[in-house]
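As a point of orientation, let us examine one representative protein, giving the amino acid sequence and backbone structure tokens.
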Amino acid sequence: MSDRTALGDRMKAYEHATRSVLPRRAYTILRVDGRAFHTFLRDARRPFDPAVMDAMNEVGRALCEEISGSVFAYVQSDECSVLATDFATPSSQPSRTPPDGSPPSSPSCPR
């Protein structure tokens, strides 16, 4: 099923622009959408099944453990979104080696 609204088209264009290469030094939200959830939820309690939500929360935790630079995961319905950065820790900062080759100064970081 395809979203044919103006907002839907715009979001698909954003998704397509970064399909293979993520922008550097930017916040990135990775969206993992469920597949065949109608089958998975066939025997679920309606309107809310704690077991399904526990499983989805575990998916969010697992994604955060596996995705480098993940900050947090957000679960809603059959999708999980993960916020990731490539600048969250001092070790992920760009090299600060001066042009003369002397050792870089230590970066200041509130952590």
In short: The CA atoms of residues 17 and 23 lie 10 Å apart. The longest helix spans residues 50-66. The helical segments are 6-17, 37-40, 50-66. The mean pLDDT is 78.
